[in-house]
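Troubleshooting entry. The earlier prediction with nicotinamide-adenine-dinucleotide gave an output that would not parse, so I re-checked the input for stray whitespace and re-submitted. Clean input:
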Amino acid sequence: MTTVGHLINGQIVADTERTQAVYNPATGEVTKQVSLASKATVEQAIAAAEAAFPEWRNTPPIKRARVMFRFKELLEKNAERICQLIGEEHGKIIHDAMGELQRGIENVEYACGVPELLKGEHSKNVGPNIDSWSEFQPLGVVAGITPFNFPAMVPLWMFPMAIACGNCFILKPSERDPSSTLYIAQLLQEAGLPDGVMSVVNGDKEAVDTLLHDPRVQAVSFVGSTPIAEYIYRTAAANCKRCQALGGAKNHAIVLPDADIDNAVNQLIGAAFGSSGERCMAVSVAVTVGDATADALILKMREAMAKLKVGHYQDKQNDFGPLITREHQQKVIGYIDSAQEQGAQVVVDGRHVQVSACEGGFFVGGTLIDQVTPDMRCYKEEIFGPVLLVVRAQNMKQAMQLIDDHEYGNGTCIFTRDGEAARYFSDNIKVGMVGINVPLPVPVAYHSFGGWKRSLFGDLHAYGPDAVRFYSKRKTVTQRWPSSGVREGAEFSMPTMK
Ligand code: NAD
């Protein structure tokens, strides 16, 4: 059986002492093993990155950008292979994997503009014959730790910009679906990146903890669940590292009485069930304003959900695939059970879905639950499955209060024809990314991505302009040349412009 290894200093290597099974979630079969890096292996990657840094930081940004241009072409040329690997190990349908990859490629396109993005700020004559400027220098060795649900896109949020800014990068992808990520890193190597600038170490907590504690690692980007995000942020801070840690979500969609219900249903069905709900921006709660809105929405959702197709990633007719593991499938089913036990009404039940020729797969069908209240476990916690809850509010104020009171603040949206209501909503809601009649308001690559509250620890968001700042440090230089003829005596008070 194949063992997925690491990419260190331009070479594929593997730890054989500890490995973990990789599954095809559509069939439930073990297809590969992934090597789990030891502390010593991660330290090799850090040493390689440190050795590569002096030359890479001095490589002109335009040349660093050219590597990214070639990388983009290779990603496009090999898109089918990448998406096949995503399907095999994650289970998402090929068209959805293509969408994820395209969103990732857009981050590479943004990184191609790095000479422009790294331009500093210059002020002439800040004093007599004195000029001053700020420039943005790379940090050194930086690390990224990524989740299973976007094995291509989320790593691409991080390393193209980090590397374009002149850093060396160590990526610790999810051990559950490691192959597409490793292959993408090999394509970057093929694009002409010098050895050691980018390493991939597969592994678990041991690899992560090594990166968090090693003083040579200057900064850590993390995307994953909230408990781990908090642990990463606290540990990185305790070790004096810059850190951004993006966590979980519970994204609410408000449906106002004036909304175009047919449109809202179409949008919600894709946003709730696409990728089996395993997206941090998936809509998992519909908050209806008024009982008539709730009844109309549920009626149309039932009709639309009867046509949902769940199955194998290779069948393009399918809408979504399985969940990532048997354990996660059971966890999602447990949330549906708990909702029922706590008095909610399961309107469409995906617990017993049958997928022919995939009997061992980790499937849960699309599920719709009405009469959910904020005290229920299914409402309070992130389910991360194809489950849409309906919470009935009586007015918009109540609907917004629910969102503001929730511990997560990643994404939200509102369906309405009322511009004034939409403006009030986007202005005041305590959430980082807001959609107006747009269910998945994932910012494009030239904006930045990040939630509020316990959906993000840190201040700078992921990718876009914030990534340029996250992966660089400001240096401000003030200069005067004696040849200007100005000579001043010793000055003991704070220099000012008199
Ligand atoms: P996870 O937190 O289990 O794992 C994320 C990463 O952390 C993996 O690389 C994993 O190996 C590592 N990890 C896991 N346990 C660890 C531990 N105890 N110590 C150190 N490292 C550890 O998340 P997941 O299940 O892979 O991904 C799903 C979660 O990610 C969901 O909660 C989802 O909302 C979140 N997510 C958030 C965003 C966002 O942008 N906010 C995007 C994608 C996914």
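This one parsed fine. The radius of gyration is 25 Å.
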